[in-house]
Specification:
Length: 298
């Protein structure tokens, strides 16, 4: 297995994967935060699984992401206490198992919508990167409506835009989901607010440079009142995203400068990132990030 990926899987297996710590999923509490009259955040604690956005109103219920299969009953309970009724639409920000892992539980009664490559990767049986599920996914776990660049919902008095920003990024099928009237955006894992560097799923063509450029684009699409739901971690604002962008872009510039002097990946990992990044200690670690950036640079 690729070195950077093995580091990733060790981390995520201990951090998220149900087959390692299934019993701990029983202890997960979903915290509900009201962000506007129509939009709510479901944040898991401990953070097994990605954040969920819930849109409710007179037309029905739409959600973004569904965490992991063992958490689907808790998700249903949490949504029920916001508003009883069926979940009409389920949007997937990307295909990873901690965001789309509950699809099979919802797909019979909810219409799943995602970028075309989310369907492709789920149909391949991928969980994340080179990790595959055993056997085949049931057909109800797959999106039934897909898009390439952008689509919109007019639902509950809210315009909801799903946008695949220009570049492959965290994966090859990431969306950001804007709730326009509420000024809320769900970023998927292009932004993880856990004080670490990004994970890049290079097995499906993800790109560190693409992620940087997408985040720059995203910053131009929001304002200081925008409430940002990251893929994981607490609710954020534009300042937080600007700090994240600076960490991403400055670290890429550092790695690029060293690569341009002829240094190998291992040599740069040995040098490590400079002091300005010493506080960036969360998921994902610097050496892994260097391993994502280096092969992506010219
Ligand atoms: Zn992800």
């Amino acid at each position: 297995m690729h070195k950077t990926l093995s580091v990733f899987f060790i981390l995520t297996m201990f951090a998220f994967a149900p087959w390692i710590k299934g019993q701990e999923l029983d202890s997960v509490v979903l915290h509900t935060t009201k962000l506007s009259d129509t939009v709510y955040l479901l944040l898991p604690e401990p953070g097994y699984g990605g954040n969920i956005a819930v849109l409710v109103g007179e037309d029905g219920i739409l959600i973004v992401d569904d965490m992991l299969m063992p958490l689907t009953n808790k998700i249903r309970d949490a949504i029920e206490s916001i508003k009883p009724g069926p979940i009409t639409y389920l949007l997937n920000s990307h295909y990873h198992y901690d965001h789309a892992g509950g699809n099979a539980a919802f797909g019979n009664t909810s219409t799943i919508v995602a970028h075309t490559n989310v369907r492709k990767r789920l149909a391949e049986g991928r969980e994340a990167g080179s990790q595959f599920i055993e056997g085949q996914r049931p057909k109800e776990a797959l999106p039934v409506i897909t898009f390439e660049q952008q689509m919109s919902f007019y639902w509950n008095g809210e315009i909801v835009d799903l946008i695949h920003l220009d570049n492959t990024s965290h994966t090859d099928g990431d969306s950001v989901i804007f709730f326009r009237d509420s000024n809320v955006v769900h970023t998927g894992d292009q932004y993880v607010n856990l004080n670490g560097f990004p994970f890049i799923d290079r097995d499906v063509g993800g790109s560190a440079i693409g992620l940087r450029d997408n985040i720059r684009m995203l910053l131009s699409m929001i304002d200081h009142k925008t409430q940002i739901i990251p893929g994981h971690g607490p609710l954020a604002n534009k300042n937080d995203l600007q700090n994240y962008y600076k960490i991403v872009s400055d670290s890429i510039a550092f790695i690029e400068a060293h690569k341009n002097t002829g240094k190998s990946l291992e040599e740069i990992q040995e040098i490590g990132l400079p002091k300005q990044f010493s506080e960036v200690t969360g998921f994902m670690p610097a050496a892994t990030w260097i391993g994502f950036v280096y092969p992506d640079l010219p």
